[in-house]
Amino acid sequence: MPTLPQFLSQAFNGIALGSLLALIASGLSIILGTLGVLNFAHGAMFMLGAYAGFVVLSHFDSFALALALGALMLLLVGFATERGLIRFYYRRPPEDQILVTFGLGIMMVEAVRYIFGPLSQRVPLPSWGQGIVDFGFFLYPLYRVEVIGFVAVLLLGFYILLYRTRIGLVVRAGIEDPLMVELLGTHVRRMFLVVFCMGSMAAGIAGVVYAPLAAVIPNMGESFLVQCFVVVVIGGLGSFPGAVVGGIIVGEILSVTTLFDPAYAQAAIYAVMTLVLIVRPRGLFGTMGRL
Amino acid sequence: MSRTPSDRNSKSAIGKTAVSRRTLMQAGLGVTAAGLLLRETALPAFAANYPALGTFPAGTSGSSIFIGGVMPLTGPYSSSGKDMQLGFELAVDHLNNGSRVTDAIPTLKKGKGVLGQKIQSQVADSETKPDVAIQAATRFIHDNNAIMLTGGISSAVSIAMQKLGQREHVIYMVGNSGSNDTTGKDCQRYGFRAQPSAYMAAKALAPVLAKELGKNLKAAYLVPDYTYGHSVYDSMKEFTEQVGWKTVGEQLAPLGTTDFSSYLLNIANSGADVFLNVAFGADAVTSTKQAQQFGILSKMKYVVPNISQFQAKELGADIMGGTYGTQAWWWTEEDKFPLAKFFVEDFEKKNSYKPRWGASEIYIQMLVWADAVERAGTFYPVEVIKALESGHKVNSIYGEVYYRAGDHQMVRPVPVVVGKKPNEMKGPEDFYRIVDLVPGEQVLPPLGQTGCKMPDIGA
């Protein structure tokens, strides 16, 4: 039986893990909700953000610059992808959309592998992120604590964008009923572009933030992509609050399960996802009939 | 019974045109005796004497032979896979065109391929997944008539490919595989493994750990949840507990995990003195990086029972300095074995870095296989397997090596290494010091303990 300190440390870790998942998943969720497109290249975009961070940090010492350039690069990638590829697939059946984004993801991974090689790249921790915080009964890396704070700020910004600005209103209306929005005279296609870029940027920023924590290799985004789909299903397709809450839930499950049987931690999230699909198929915050 | 005209006709027809039974039997005996005699004294070039088996003789009747390599070019083990591919290509080049290494092996001095036939080769991506590897290997067998298969880094892949080789009667020289099961409960007649098993590595490493780190320490493990991980954990547990160590934690993580924070947090809270990391490839790099961030590396000793090929390069000597572990081979062995020196030089000239044990393991197996084929005088799998099982010693880049017939484990030295700190390094790739080069005979598991029951050769 795990002790209280062990439990609390894993609970905290769950929030750290979950907040990152929430950021990536919210991008995926709004793309899915607005465009109706399942973006299988989302994990690759996360990876591109990490590599962008690596390239910037190997020449400059500024983490802020890495974030800015990473976000900018993913903005451009999102723009190019939507204009050049995705917009031809809005009227196509979902299988075609899945195939094209899946293929795009593979191309991105292989392009990065071709340029950088298969060895993992090292991204150093920023100087203000080194060290360990002593919570009394457990130690935790300082950088991960800072990541929780940073992601919280980003998610807050996302929230303000979606719920307190005009463009956010249009995006949310587009999630509810794109046809109606178009009939009311709003240029829906331009909104789709904005949403896709926002989603890509969210994934890219998450990538830059995560790069010092893991091995930066071409297929680092794969496991995140799968976990994000679980988050989106649990939270509700197309729901931003659902992505946040779902992310925290998945993060907590992954962490706390390891106290009991580490081998089942990864399997446990699928068990919970199945439970949600049986009990409440639309997800915790999803709306009936949407997608 | 009355005879009809047709009866009479057929009976007389039989009597006139048919050969009598006695003559038939005499002729048959004569042919069989001649055949047996011929087979016993068969000249090596007579492939027609051996029955068809697997891809023989379909794969050898042309001007060249085909060898298929299935390696992880993507997936968590991709860095090692690239190294293995380059070693494979160098071996093919040396066998086809001669080299200083093959010149030193009597059967391979000709340098014109194997049994006069040049080797054509191809490498397919296993993606570090057994099912993908099997598909690629099956294509090599059916489309290219591959006479031999090699490659594989994940033990799950290697064990699956061994089973395929046994089923299809095609010899499989295991690329890398550390699991005990490969020459244990999953041993196959058509598979041969060169890398030291987890048992051998643990038996070689434990005394060094006892001497350098101490006895009666508490140990926590991070283990990838598949055959290789379990093997290394079981063997390390067995041998470290013999020197008084106590195992206080085993954290199982799936192969390909990117975030080990939950597992590492449990290890940090376990009160252990030593952290043993069994993760491999990209997982080893990620988990070590994260372990450092959680402060584990500063408060516990760090041991990696089987060090990945590029672990020190990817993590840096500041992290890996002072870490004890084993590797199947490290390039500084060239100081002891002259053939290794030639291998390192030729490899470095072609690829601009010092080869790692992904390359060396596949290289040595290619040469040992070619030597066995030359000694057997044929590609017929049964004869090649017998030649490999004969215990004949080949002088190679690892010194003298041979395969043990009972489980097809190569008997070869096991290097125990320690990472060098940055100020100890004499060159950009001088990452490890070889603490001990343990002779293979000293650390082999007793045959009865391996659990290996060699299947039939199926001829």
Q: What general form of chain A does the structure show?
A: globular
How do the helices and strands follow one another from N- to C-terminus of chain A? HHHHEEHHHHHHH
In CATH, the topology of the domain at 64-196 and 332-412 in chain B is named Rossmann fold
What is the makeup of the main sheet of chain A?
2 strands, antiparallel
Structural class of chain B: alpha/beta
Q: What oligomeric arrangement do these chains adopt?
A: heterodimer
Q: Would you identify the CATH architecture of chain A?
A: Orthogonal Bundle
The count of DSSP E runs of length 2 or more, i.e. the number of strands of chain A, is 2
Strand content of chain A: under 5%
The averaged pLDDT of chain B comes out at: 89
Strand order of the largest sheet of chain A: 1-2
Structure description:
The complex is a heterodimer of chains A (291) and B (459). By secondary structure, chain A is mainly α. Chain A has one domain: ABC transporter involved in vitamin B12 uptake, BtuC, CATH 1.10.3470. Chain A has eleven helices and two strands, in the order ααααββααααααα. Chain A has a two-stranded antiparallel ribbon with strand order 1-2. The longest helix of chain A has 32 residues. Chain A starts with a helix and ends in a 12-residue tail after the last helix. The mean pLDDT of chain A is 89. Chain B is of the alpha/beta class and 459 residues long. Among the domains of chain B are: 214 residues, Rossmann fold (3-Layer(aba) Sandwich); 106 residues, Rossmann fold (3-Layer(aba) Sandwich). In chain B, the strands form three sheets. In chain B, strands 7-6-8-9-10-14-15 form a seven-stranded mixed β-sheet, sandwiched between helices. Chain B has a five-stranded parallel β-sheet with strand order 2-1-3-4-5, sandwiched between helices. Chain B has a three-stranded antiparallel β-sheet with strand order 11-12-13, with helices on one face. In chain B, α5 runs parallel beside α6. The chains are: A mainly alpha (291), B alpha/beta (459).
